[in-house]
Structure formats: C-alpha cells, structure tokens
Write a structure and sequence with these properties.
CATH architecture of the largest domain: 3-Layer(aba) Sandwich
Distance between the termini: 51 Å
Largest sheet: 8 strands, mixed
Number of strands: 14
Structural class: alpha/beta
Strand content: 15-25%
Bound molecules: pyridoxal-5'-phosphate
Shape: globular
CATH class of the largest domain: Alpha Beta
Radius of gyration: 21 Å
Oligomer: single chain
CATH superfamily of the largest domain: Type I PLP-dependent aspartate aminotransferase-like (Major domain)
Number of domains: 2
Length: 391
Amino acid sequence: MFSARTRWSLAENELAKARQQRDRLGLPLFDLTESNPTRCGFDYDENEVVTAFQNRQILQYGPDARGLYSARLAVMEYYADRGVDLQSEQIFLTASTSEAYSFIFRLLCDVGDSVLAPRPGYPLLDYLASLNDLVVQGYPLHYDGRWQIDRDALASGPGERSRVLLVVHPNNPTGSFVHPEEADYLARLCAERGMALIADEVFADYAHPSSAVPVRSFAKENRVLTFTLSGLSKTSGLPQMKCAWMVVTGPPGARCEAIARMEVIADTYLSVSTPVALALPSLLGLRRSIGPQIHGRVLSNLALLDQQLEAALPISRLHIEGGWYAILRLPRLSSDEDWALVFLREEGVMVHPGHFYDFADDGYVVLSLLPRPEVFAAGVKKLFAQVLARC
Ligand SMILES: Cc1ncc(COP(=O)(O)O)c(C=O)c1O
C-alpha cells in the first residue's frame, strides 16, 4: 500500500527511548541538543512580532508565485547589507528551507539522479533527497585543525547522474564555512560537470569572531547556476513563522530559464501565507535584536565549554568558524552512541552522537550552543565528570 520511498525504519532509537523513560519518571533533563531558539529564553520583542501581523491587507488574496513583492524587497535589502545586489525576480519565498530544497530538486533532477552533499552534514538532507526520489552521494569534509572539503574525494564523486552540488555555509554540525578558494573550486567543478550549486546559508549570520574566513554569500555566485537558501528560522530566530527564501543566480541564460521554470513550481503550491509574507519585513528586521542575543549566547556557552575543557584533558573540542553547534572528541572507550546513552541514563544529559551526522569516525558528540547558560553549564559539567570518571 505504501511507496518504497517511505520504507523507513520507524522504530525509536535507544536515545529517544531513554529520553522518554526519563520524561515519564519526571527526571531532570539537561538538553544539550536544544536548538529551538523560542525555547532558549531570548528576549523577543513580543509587541513587534504581534504588530507585524496587524495589517488589514491580510484580508485580501493577491497571489504571486515568487511571494509578495514587499517581502522580496525586504530580502533584497538583507542581501544589500551584505554587499549583494539582487533583482526582486531572483528571489522566491518558500514555507521553509526544506521546501526550497524540494522545489530545486524538482526543477533540476529526475528520478534516480544524485546530489552531492557534505559529510558530516545535516541529516534532513537525506530525507529531502529520498522524498524526491534522489540519491545522496556524500563528499567528505576532513579535519586537520579545521574542516576542509576533501577535493580529491569530491572530484571523483560526480557521475553521469549527479545534478547538484550542495554546500551548507557554515555547515551543520561542523561549523565550517566554505573558504573563498574552495568556492572557486566548487564553481569550476560544477561548470565542468554540468551541475548546479545549492548553498544553504541559514547560519551565515553567525560567524564566530575568531574565524579568519571572510564570509562571502553564494548569492554573489554568477559563474554557475546557484540557489542560495536562508530564512527566518535562524536569521531572526523565528522557526515558527515558516518563512524562508531562495535566491537564484548564475549565468543569464541558465538563470532566466531556472527562474521561469521555478515560477511554475512555486505557482503550483503558493505555499507562503499572505499574513507571514506581509509581516516578513518586520520579522526580518527583528534579526537586529535577536541575532546579537543568539550570537552572544553561542559565544558565551562556547567560552564556558572551553573553560571547562582546560581541566578535562581526554576531551577536546573541534575548531568551529560559525553556526550554533560544537563538536567534542571523546576518548574511544565506547562508541559515540554508547557515550550519548551513558550521559543520558547516568546524568540526564542529552547530546547527539556523531553518527547522526555521518562522521567518518567514531567518538564524536555534537552539542547545541543555544541552551540557557545554567542548563548548558550544568550539562557540560556532568558530561565531563562522567567521562573523567571512566578514564
Ligand atoms: C543546515 C540547515 N538548513 C536548514 C534548516 C532548517 O531551516 P527551515 O526551518 O527554514 O526549514 C536547518 C535547521 O536546523 C539546518 O540545520
């Protein structure tokens, strides 16, 4: 009765089971995977959020496949602040970045084609690809003091059916930006192999001050057909608004054809609601107050983590350049899954094992840097105590 593409294993993993058991018993949880900003105690200007929707124009329906012009204008200004000049025609609003991925996959790929995606990487990409009948070919990022694209492995990856090269800039969970010389290489590779680029920049506003990389948006890329994605969920810390966008750039011929075809796809769904599109200029403006709060939290939690690391020799933290996550390398006494289970069962500390993100090696766990400081500090302390007790 069901499609082969939904033949997932629906059994709960051990970590989810252990968490549910704790919840049932009413035991405390130090959730170091929390990355929903609306649950992390940030001070949202509630009046401004609510007022953004008090607009009598919500009573009218004037559909536009790309999304309301006033909203796209706000997105254009967002990029203009980053030194990127766009035309409103190059922007499409979507209900989420996930939806933008799906639209692009439908535009570029046929059943069974493949997309190249970074490993370690964002786990949802596998679902998005398989729901669109595509295959993900992972290309490795390797770590030697900083994460870099393994160019040899990448160059040997694309085959006849590879249509899209995907980058996450900065990547989730490695926090690594695509460096300018890597971006040049990727553009050359895509041009040679006839692939388009997708750049997911949802975390691009969260570059760490210690990062020496100049953050250049892929929305500036004109050498190959490129789709740059972002949205309110990270930029303004408003995932509940369900509003994102894509920017289409590239050589004029391919770009115009892509925009014309994308318009038909977007027109088929018209999925962004009028109220949120009307509110988008104000909601995007909220990044000026929320962005610094989120950034401040990420940096202060990271500083706290580093402080505790000084006294926890068998644990080290991998270098990050941006984003909301930190990666810890643990002693190889157990698998990453077993470490995560020990932290949860013994201490009530929840972290993600590296294998969720397809790390090439065992022994890594991923922490969100968003939790409230008191939760983060207590969770990290307990996690470190557990590791030290076992070494
Ligand atoms: C790399 C990446 N892209 C996209 C998203 C989600 O964006 P949206 O809420 O717009 O679908 C996430 C969420 O964590 C993410 O990590």
